[in-house]
Write a structure and sequence with these properties.
heterodimer; A: Rossmann fold; five-stranded mixed sheet; 20% strand; B: two-stranded antiparallel ribbon
Chain lengths: 323, 331
């Protein structure tokens, strides 16, 4: 079967939705040229009415998309830099997200915001390296963080077809992932449905985004000592709580690896919910960025504040030590 | 629309606001309102120049725009009273009143936030081959918001069918225009190549004439236009001022400001009999609106997060249950 890269999967999803539905349009900076390779060729194929290069005015064009969505379009906005989400938090959270409730359901706001390169890209320093998916989960915006090319394709398609705002994070650490896929079998992946990448019986490792690969590597390396189940929520909001509960019924032990800052990150929510409501036979653990982390520039420092294989290995061994 | 109809719109807005203030004082409207009293000529003059399928975005001081665009005053008042029979089923209140069937894309609680929404809608309508026009109402405070200036750039760049209407009532809450605005208000528009003019916002006919010309031109493809309407807010920034007694306008200034009432300016164009007839009819409409609003059902607290997601998604409750998200883990 052919190899599909994560980046090409995003491109393919966007291309397919543009072709399928005339209401879909793309807004963003440098999307005509396609500096992130996701939108490459789309301008030539679909024209300047569908693929719109935006001046550097993120706040205006984010709410511009809200207006276009109310008026019948399905805009997809590319943000080159994850930290731009801080700039448009008002437009996404306070405007687009709240309109359905505030109007008593008079309108949906079908806008997809996607980031082909979230989290650390190594060497891009403090203002280009954030991974704020937990913020969007906190405020209740539908938030997806695909880990694999086929999930990137399927979740992007679903996000574009959704009648509510959806933020899709494509972690930098996942962009290089390739997968053998049958192109004919690619299709939508529902929001709020997790995926077990590797079955196990001793401990559930919940891994978000690119950290799924980290979890799989650790599971492989420790295979002789510990049977690890790797659970990928795929969507951080809405979260597949039932899927997690089912996994914990099998394992009873939990480690979460999450590229959020520790305080109020989704990892905290996962551990809290498991502790309140699910089967746990040992105290759970989290591997996250430190509290309030700002990514420093130097590579050693950048890596020092990101969750690592070593940290995950230590956490897993700690959680199973009394097994 | 005629002179007479514009007077009726203004009278309706005025009496709506006065009745709403009574309901705020009586506790039937919680949270208070931002009264539009004194500025009625602008909403009436601009909206009279619009077609039914044109769209508007409004502001925190939005009752006038929403009513002038055709919203039912009874359902509007029910919204303010937080009732299920309100425009937004009691989910939005004064600052978010909307009726999408009438092109009213909502009042807005954030100053300047409606500008890009109106402009994006204008883009979408033009792309769809329609000649619908969008109007974004905002106050003098909004002209210092970056997002609005960014929006002027986009609208001008793509020559979109948008009319930006700035209601300059002299104050952003309590801060005067002199203390807040460098340069001029219209200068912000002309800097982007958008034709801008200033009109007497206390005269509905002057507003209507200017808005008609601007809307006609933008509908024909001339690109966006900008209209500054000078006006005076007769009442408080917000009804909390009635109790808080914030001191930022002198009694003299307020009485001078109120001395030229836009309803009298417009009313003088009618015979006394005509005017009295409209006033009586509006009283009946408002009596019925108050009865409709106060008789409306209060929402069931169990539905507090109804409509949060357009597809009906439900999150967890504040005590952790129920889990209503899908449960179909793929292996």
């Amino acid at each position: 079967m052919p190899l599909l890269s994560y980046q090409k999967a995003l491109h393919r999803a966007l291309n397919d939705e543009l072709a399928r539905d005339g209401a879909v349009c793309v807004f963003g900076e440098d999307v005509g040229v396609g500096v992130n390779n996701v939108t490459s060729g789309l301008l030539a194929k679909f024209g300047a009415d569908r693929v719109v290069d935006m001046p550097l005015s993120e706040q205006a064009f984010t709410s511009f998309a809200t207006g276009a969505a109310i008026a019948g379009r399905r805009p997809v906005i590319e943000f080159q830099i994850p930290s731009l989400l801080f700039l448009v938090f008002e437009q996404i959270v306070n405007q687009a997200h709240k309109l359905s409730l505030m109007t008593g359901g008079q309108t949906g706001v079908p806008v997809t915001y996607f980031l082909p390169g979230s989290g650390s890209r190594a060497g891009w320093a403090g203002q280009h390296s954030d991974h704020p998916y937990s913020l969007f989960a906190h405020v209740g915006v539908k938030t997806v963080v695909p880990a694999t090319p086929s999930d990137a394709y399927g979740l992007f398609v679903t996000a574009i077809r959704d009648d509510d705002p959806v933020v899709l994070f494509g972690p930098s650490g996942a962009l290089g992932v390739r997968e053998d896929v049958d192109f004919a079998a690619l299709g939508p992946v529902p929001l709020g449905v997790g995926r077990v990448h590797r079955a196990g019986t001793d401990v559930t490792v919940v891994a978000v985004g690119h950290l799924v690969q980290t979890a799989l590597a650790v599971a492989q390396r420790l295979a002789d000592q510990v049977s690890i189940e790797v659970f990928d929520p795929r969507t951080v909001y809405p979260f597949d709580w039932a899927g997690l509960a089912a996994s914990l019924e099998r394992t009873g032990r939990l480690v979460v690896i999450d590229d959020s800052n520790r305080s109020c990150g989704i990892g905290g929510e996962i551990v809290a919910t498991a502790a309140e409501e699910m089967r746990l036979v040992a105290p759970p653990k989290r591997v996250t960025r430190p509290d309030g982390a700002v990514l420093p520039f130097a590579l050693e420092l950048d890596r020092a504040v990101q969750p690592s294989e070593e940290q995950l290995t230590t956490a897993v061994l700690e959680v199973v030590k009394d097994a | 629309m005629t002179v007479r109809e514009r007077y009726r719109t203004m009278r309706l807005i005025r009496r709506f606001e006065e009745r709403a203030i009574e309901l705020v004082r009586g506790g039937e409207i919680v949270g208070g309102i931002h009264p539009y009293i004194g500025q009625e000529a602008i909403a009436a003059g601009v909206c009279a120049a619009l077609r039914a399928d044109d769209v508007i975005t409004s502001t925190h001081r939005g009752h006038g725009h929403v009513l002038a665009k055709g919203a039912d005053p009874a359902r509007m008042l029910a919204e303010l009273a937080g009732r299920e029979n309100g425009l937004n089923k009691g989910r939005g209140g004064s600052m978010h009143a909307a009726d999408f069937t009438l092109g009213i894309y909502g009042a807005n609680g954030i100053v300047g936030a409606g500008g890009p929404i109106a402009t994006g809608a204008a883009w979408a309508h033009r792309q769809a081959g329609s000649d619908r026009v969008a109007v974004s109402f905002f106050g003098d405070g909004a002209v210092n918001q970056g997002v609005l200036l960014e929006t002027l750039n986009l609208a001008a760049l793509w020559r979109l069918p948008v009319l930006f209407v700035c209601e300059n009532n002299g104050y952003a809450t309590t801060l005067t225009v002199a203390a807040a605005v460098a340069g001029s208000i219209t200068g912000r528009a002309t800097a982007f190549g958008i034709p801008a003019s200033t009109v007497d916002g206390m005269d509905a006919e002057a507003v209507h004439e200017a808005a008609s010309a601007a809307i006609g031109a933008t509908r024909e493809g001339a690109g966006p236009a900008f209209l500054e309407c000078t006006t005076y807010r007769f009442d408080a920034h917000h009804t909390w001022e009635h109790k808080a007694r914030v001191n930022y306008r002198s009694t003299d200034e307020v009485s001078t400001g109120r001395s030229r009432d836009p309803l009298d300016v417009q009313g003088a164009r009618l015979s006394e009999v005509e005017r009295a007839g409209i006033d009586t009819e509006v009283e009946t409409v408002m009596d019925e609106a108050v009865a409709f609003a106060l008789g409306g059902p209060r929402p069931d607290p169990a539905g507090a997060l109804d409509h949060l997601y357009h597809d009906g998604l439900r999150g967890r409750s504040g005590t952790g249950e129920p889990h209503l998200t899908p449960a179909r883990t793929v292996t």
